[in-house]
Each structure stands twice: as C-alpha cells, then as structure tokens.
Amino acid sequence: MAPVVALCAAALLPGLEAKGLAWQFVATGNHGDAIGALSFDGAQGRLAVGGTRGARVGVPGKSFEQVLRRGPVRDLVFGPSGRLLAATPHGVFEIDGEGRAFPRAPAPGAAARDVYRVRVAGGIIAAATGAGVFVSRDAVHWRRASAGWPAEPSYTVALRPNENGVDCWAVVGGRLWSVELRAGHEEIEAGRPRRHVLPAAIDPSGSVDVALGLPGLDVVAVLPSLFVVRDAPSEPWRRVRPGLPPGARARRLVFAHQKLWLATDGGLLSADALEGPWRRAAPPAGSAATGAVVGEGTRLYVGSRDRVLAPVVGAGFRGLRTPEGDPPIEHVHRVVLSTLQLEFGRPAALRRGARRRGWLPLVSFRLARGEDRLRLVDRDESFVSGGLRRLLDTEHRNSRDFETSLTLAWDLGDIAYHPEEIDASREARELVKLRDDVLDEVTQLYFERRRVLAELATAAPGERLRLGIRAAELAAGIDAWTGGWFSRARAGRL
C-alpha cells in the first residue's frame, strides 16, 4: 500500500518552504500504543517500531509484522548481522529474520536486565542498564564497558567509530564518561576511562541523550531543557539553551535533511544550528508528543503518538486532501485494517505459529491419593486359679499414599507437518476474504459520500438538507470502521 501524505502541511519550516515539506504516514504502532523507539536498516530498507506492547518490523509505507510481544520497548537498533536488538525492562532481545526473539541478559540480576538503551557501531554492541554499561560483539557474551566506570544506573549510551575502534560515551550515575573500545581477536579491549566535568548538573534519573558527530560539533549532551556542547576535543564545554516551548522536555537530537531535529514531549522541533531559533515542525509532527526520532542523510522518521511520520520534500499542500477535505482512501484503508487487526502480515503469523506448534509438547499431570484402614480384633479365654478370664485385643492401622506424575509427549510427525496448518490456511483464507469485504464496504461508503458531497455543491435549496443528512450518515459509517479516526482527521486534530 502506498504511503499516504498527512492532512496538514501549513507552517512549513524556514528554508524548506520552497521544497514544499509535508509529512506522510509510513507506519503505525499497535493500535493505541505510543511509539517510543525507532530504528532504520538502510541496507534492507526496513523500519523497526517499538512501543509499550512490543516491536514491529516492515518496509515504510507497507505492512508491518509483530516480532516482539513483550514491552515496553525503550530502544531499537539493527545489529551488524541485520538482526534487530530491542532494549526492554526484561533484558536485550535479539530478533532474527524469522521473527524469533532470543533474550540476552548483559549480566545476572534484575538491574542488569533493566535495559534503557542499546547502540551498535564498529561491530560492538553497547547496552545502558540499571547496573551500568555493558558491551558485546555478539549480544551473547557481555562485559562491562570499562572497569573504571561506576556500576550505577545508566540511561543512555552512544557509540562512534574512530581510527582505532569505537568511542563509547555514556551518562552513568549522573556523570558523563567516555572510553575508547577496540574489538580484539577474543574480547573487547577498553582504553583509559575519562570522566568529563560539565558546566551543568545532570539529574541521575532524568531523560538524557548523547549525540555524537553532528556537523561542526563533537559531542552534545541533551538534557531535558539544555544542551551541553563540546565543539572539538580540545575545546571546553559550553551551555546552549534551545528555547523549548513552555513545559516541553527534550528527548532525542538527530541531523537529517540538512537540519537539526529535536524530539520533545511537546512535538518535533527543527533548527539550522544548535543555537536556534528552534521552530515547530509542520503538523502533525510538530503538534503531538514525539516519542522517538531517527535520522541520517535524507532519511528521517518520527514517532508521533501511535504513528510513524516521514517528511516529503517536493510535495506542497495541494493534493494532500481530497477536494472535499477528506483524507485519501489509501490511509482510510490502512487505519481500518489496523483498527480491526486485519493487517497483511497476520496470515503469515498464523502459519508460523502452526509450524512452531509441533515443537510444543502435550503436557499431562496426574495426582492420585490412596487410603487404607485395617482393624484387628483378637478374643481369648483363660482359666487361672479357678477363675475364668476373657481377653480382648484390638489393633487399628491407617495408611495414606500420594502419587504425582508429569508427562511430556511429542508427536514427531507434527514437527514435519502439523495438522493445525490446515486450520491456519483456512483461517488465512477467511481473513483475506474478510479483509476484502471490509475494504470493499469502506470504499463504497467513502466514494458514495464524495458523490453526495458533489451533488450537494450544486443542489437546489430543497435538496440540500436531505443530501447533507446522507453525507453525515456515510461519514458516521466510515467513522465506525475507523474507531472515530475519520472525523478527527477531517477536523485536522491528527
């Protein structure tokens, strides 16, 4: 399905008005799920989207597949082998091309599994965790980034290749540290650690970022309302206030399309230089909280609420809406499929689940309880010294037995071909049929409404009321299919 351009492109940024910058929807997160992480694989053209309910991967503008169902996902990055790495409170998850997720714990303990950021550069993987910063070459074997760094919580880490290896920067325990890492033959070698004294205090629990290699800048520490900048390794640190909107807090800083882009909880901002002036991006990117942003060269993707946006250069406002002010039919289709969970990757997920079912055992548990009761009575008589004596002897015995058993059984034939694959194929065909029916119904409502609006524009006064009611009825039908999105989009509130 082709990408769909956003509904509004007013208030374009200075320097880009001539190019006609607008925003297009290229992906959505899980329905109602706020996007908090993005990563783009330029080699294969894949985009990874993470949120509170897991992660999805796909090609921008096309269907996306759920590859991780555990969240929240705090950060995403494509590794050297093309595998996706996800930072979560449960550890780092490595996701292969088949959509299988493998948990990777940087170190024992709950704090080390509480991962906030994961980065990749020069064949080295770095993870910022609640127990410090750990590095690895394969996401399986980990070590601390530097023995000289404190084992305290770290919420951000950044990597940059150099001539000898990789520069690793991180905020650990509220202090900024750096170290040079080299990937040796057997393990990662760390140089001398360095602690940097900044002209501003860092809140150990605050949301910060470290941006490396921006044009004309060496290192930028992004604090919630302040930049701490080093222009070159020999230059001192300086403070820059970006002049954010009231109450907004900075999150991520990237460079793309010859501009600096700053993600904040008050919307996306842009500037030609770090000193500003910083201006809001065109709606909807600049008017909604930005959870994540990733950019490089001419690629820029923005996580705005539960949607991923990308700028379109060379497309003005003309043509971004229909003449009646409605969003294009392609995006209506996309929202309907997302609302009803009828995305194009769902049949493939059903088939994969059926193939994996053969590896799962049939589990049976048995509990048995037995009880025995025995009563013995012995009677006897004796005559002693002229007297008769009767003797009675009784005995009671009770016993209880408990037995438990756990059985795991595999049918090896199901591994080669599971019978449920037939059901999965049948379900996939039903999903395709249902999807076609839904899209056909929505398409009829959409274009019938446009025809009614066209008649309404030239109708006689006596017909205008009837046609207006009919148009509202059709709009309500589309609104029902999209969960209320259609009316909000027409009103420009997205």
Task: Describe the structure in your own words.
- This protein is of the alpha+beta class and 494 residues long.
- The protein contains seven helices and 32 strands.
- A five-stranded antiparallel beta sheet has the order 1-2-30-29-28, covered by helices on one side. Strands 15, 16, 17, 18 and 19 form a five-stranded antiparallel beta sheet that branches.
- Helix 2 packs across helix 5, helix 3 runs antiparallel to helix 5 (420-458) and helix 5 (420-458) packs antiparallel against helix 6.
- The longest helix has 39 residues, at 420-458.
- It is extended and about 130 Å long.
- The model is unreliable at 1-20 and 314-321 (pLDDT under 50).
Biggest sheet architecture: 5 strands, antiparallel
Q: What is the strand tally? A: 32
Unreliably modeled segments: 1-20, 314-321
Write down the overall mean pLDDT: 81
Radius of gyration: 32 Å
Approximate shape: extended
